[in-house]
Design a protein that fits this description.
167 residues, alpha/beta, three-stranded parallel β-sheet, two-stranded antiparallel sheet, 7 helices
Length: 167
Amino acid sequence: GNDASGKAILDELTANNVNTQYVIKTDKANTGTSFVIPYPSGERSTLTHRGANASLTQEELPLHAIEAQDYLYITSLTGTTAPFIEIITAHAKKYNKPVATNPGTSQLTAGAHHLRNALPHIDILILNCYEASLLMHELMPEEHTSDRSFSQGPHAPCLLQTTRISD
């Protein structure tokens, strides 16, 4: 966002010698914000407001910037930005750029088919156990989605043996 939070983030990145030439600012929405709430058990909850992150358009993608980079890291893309994972990873693969991504839970449910299509172009997929379980359920062949013996039986893959998360 083109706001005080966005300016503070850019100032911090610049102070740490991070190149910000490809940052896109918008007046359409405020800068996205996340709060991580840690629990004594080691678990955590994250409260996220996507803000300007959700207003990115395909025309704004700086695909030409990928060609000049050594590596590419893609964070969670959700809602209208979910399809961009396919476009970005295909472009990176065209230029032999290694791609790492850490999709969020929203991307692993509502946008999973876009992530599935991008998997051949992803070199490193970063998931915690919960996210991996979500992805496994989304990747499960359609004919097995109602077959509890496939996902709950003794020969089921470990990540499918957990209780399916309610939609």
